[in-house]
Amino acid sequence: MTRLLIVGPPGAGKGTQSARLTETFGIPDISTGDIFRANIREQTPLGVQVKAIVDAGDYVPDTLTNALVSSRLDEEDARDGFLLDGYPRTLEQVAYLEQLLAGKGQALDAVIQLVADQDEVVARLRKRAIEQGRADDTEEAIRHRQEVYARETSPLIAVYRDRGLLVEVDGLGDIDEVSDRIAEGLAARGIFATQDDAAAG
Ligand code: ADP
């Protein structure tokens, strides 16, 4: 029963580490961005409603996002744990999530923050953009997204730090190294993947 959040700037390898965590802990990776994109692709009523907002890169209103997460956490596979990715993103969502979990007699176990030097991440994303022929993804645009991330998430990070939930992990280095650091940070808080969890994942 492990309830985790993961936060990290674009390019810090959050997707890779999330996939590993869901496997190690046998918990679903719940990404609000992925859920919105799937709804848009399938043209569900929710997808139709949020398409313009998501396309513009703006935040979907909290009421919609909160309702979405609430129903997702009600699903069977999330009953005994989850990894939330991309949510909460606002202080209102932080408060909502806390209430929601409290109502189920649950609480978060830890918030993993992947920390990465901005220059390093920008260089990494820039390299990837060139390799993938996305030269339009300029250094300036990449840097801007990093700044937006830092500005928007820092109040959330502060809240979780105050609550003693934050596990700060250096996101630079190779994938296994970062995974090991995450495992160490969680273990220091008494959070371990059991044999059963690993088998279920
Ligand atoms: P990124 O592409 O920055 O990693 P995501 O994939 O997490 O972002 O989300 C894509 C889009 O989905 C966001 O730009 C936003 O429109 C919407 N979205 C995702 N999560 C949230 C959230 N917690 N609150 C509001 N909007 C969200």
TrEMBL record:
Coiled coil region boundaries: none
Entry's Gene Ontology molecular function annotations: AMP kinase activity; ATP binding
Tell me the protein family, please: Belongs to the adenylate kinase family.
Q: Where is this region: NMP?
A: 31-60
The name this protein goes by in its record = Adenylate kinase
Q: What top-tier enzyme class does this entry carry?
A: transferase
Biological pathway: Purine metabolism; AMP biosynthesis via salvage pathway; AMP from ADP: step 1/1
What is one GO cellular-component annotation here?
Answer: cytoplasm
Its lineage reads: Bacteria, Bacillati, Actinomycetota, Actinomycetes, Micrococcales
UniProt keyword annotations, A-Z: ATP-binding, Cytoplasm, Kinase, Nucleotide biosynthesis, Nucleotide-binding, Transferase
Return the domain comment text from this UniProt entry: Consists of three domains, a large central CORE domain and two small peripheral domains, NMPbind and LID, which undergo movements during catalysis. The LID domain closes over the site of phosphoryl transfer upon ATP binding. Assembling and dissambling the active center during each catalytic cycle provides an effective means to prevent ATP hydrolysis.
Subunit note: Monomer.
